[in-house]
Amino acid sequence: MSQPPAFPAEVGGYRIDILVAGYPGKSTQNGGIGWSTVVLLRGHGRVILLDTGGFGVRKPLMHRLQVLGLTPADVTDLLLSHAHWDHIVNYQLFPQARLYIGRIEMDWARSMPPGETAVPEMYVEALSREPGLTLLEEGDEVFPNLRVEMGPGHTLGHLVFVLTGDTHDVIFAQDAAKTRAEFVSKRTDMTIDAALSEATIEKMWSLLRAREGNILLPGHDLPMILVDGEVRLVGQRDAGILASFGMSLEDQTVFDLSATA
Ligand SMILES: [Zn+2]
After folding, report:
1. What's the CATH code of the domain at 79?
2. How many domains does one find in the chain?
3. 252 within domain boundaries
């Protein structure tokens, strides 16, 4: 392809905005930070959010919707890739939205004992009782041009959404391939089954290679494209930590975590 894609992008009758770009990192001492990708798709009469991020992203998420002229009530549909806390815990902020998650994922998540995985037990339990919940399976065309593929490994019933456009496709991998490092190496951090994860990543390589110009969005990294067979990131990282080491609130230290893409 001559020009790399830019977001917002128009594919398959949807405008795609990356509301929150995922970040490929975790803390050294304090556990996961869960900075995950949140995507907005608008088209075919729907306002669709793909995943919701974790608690910490609530304010920026609301702000970014507001900048686009949207309120939480405008979101008609919420697609949930899998049942980890950094992707689902904000679902209740969108009271009008229909909810979608994998059938296998919901059964698996509800069977997880507390503390063994990143499943937020009470949220999953509440989600399972939502009257507007639809359980998805492989091959479902959830919306026009948007189909469901299974992507197990990171969790048992992780979903990958594939948007088919006129000239190219967008593969919403989320945590089926969290980072470029996972996608390129085909080895995964945080998986319940490394062999399943590897098979899922092979499948996503096929999806990415299927048409020139295809784009893959991982759950904790920037979008990826293929250029001469090499995986390239699209866009720039923008992340940092604001620390208060001093004696006043004004005394702040900024740690730039952007790194170069
Ligand atoms: Zn996850």
Report:
1. 3.60.15.10
2. 1
3. no
pLDDT in tens, 192-230: 999 999 999 999 999 999 999 999 999 999 999 999 999
What is the whole-number distance in angstroms between the Cα of residue 177 and the centre of ligand 1?
Answer: 10
Predicted pLDDT of residue 124: 97
Query: Do 207 and 171 contact (CB within 8 A), yes or no?
Result: yes
Range(s) of the domain holding residue 168: 9-236
DSSP H helical ranges for the chain: 58-67, 85-88, 103-110, 121-128, 180-185, 194-209
The answer on pLDDT for 261 being more than 90 is: no
Structure tokens at 46: 């729907």
pLDDT at 123 over 70: yes
pTM higher than 0.90 for the full model? yes
CA of 219 to the centre of ligand 1 (A): 8
Question: Quick check: is 118 in a domain?
Answer: yes
Q: How far is the CA of 195 from the centre of ligand 1 (A)?
A: 17
- Rounded to 5 degrees, φ, ψ at 140 are -60, 135
188 falls within a domain = yes
In whole angstroms, what is the distance from residue 17 CA to residue 173 CA? 16
Dist. CA 119–CA 113, nearest whole Å: 9
Residue 151 in domain: yes
pLDDT, tens only, 4-15: 788 999 999 999
